[in-house]
Amino acid sequence: MSDDTLDKQIPDRSPLNIKSTAIRFGIIGGMGCVLVSVGLFLADLQFENWARWIGTLVLILAVIFGIKAIAAENERKSKPFGSLFGAGMLITLIIALISILYFFLYLNFIETDFAGKVLEVSRQQMMEKGLNEDQIDKALEMTRKFTSPWIMAVFALIANLFFGTIGSLIGAAIFKEDK
Hints:
The protein is mostly helical.
């Protein structure tokens, strides 16, 4: 036996300590998304197509950095992909809940005519694409069906879970350590 073999520590296969760090990064990510939304509102950029991706980027980064922190805090333990992925999804769920709670506050107290403004922006975009009034009216009629707060919240939850899954897959793949 070489000295290298004797110097290596046997990895601890006990469950990872995930909960407190996942909650912390979920809150940080959720508040980051809220701050981005408030900043975009104050700059009157909340309806710009590119601006919608900033919150998504915050979510993905919070998940990846949260998984990195969990891996670092469990330095001497085996870090299986599944455990890290689950941690990322816990972070995602917390971010999604904070974002949806904020969304309802936003609709009721900040941008009370959000649905009307979404329709107005949609009309403008369709006019720029050269659609005629009849086509625009039909498209806006369909859009109106999806602008209720509850339907928008469901779509926001689905989008958060989708992009959180991507962040969790990336973070778990980078920081996994099966010893």
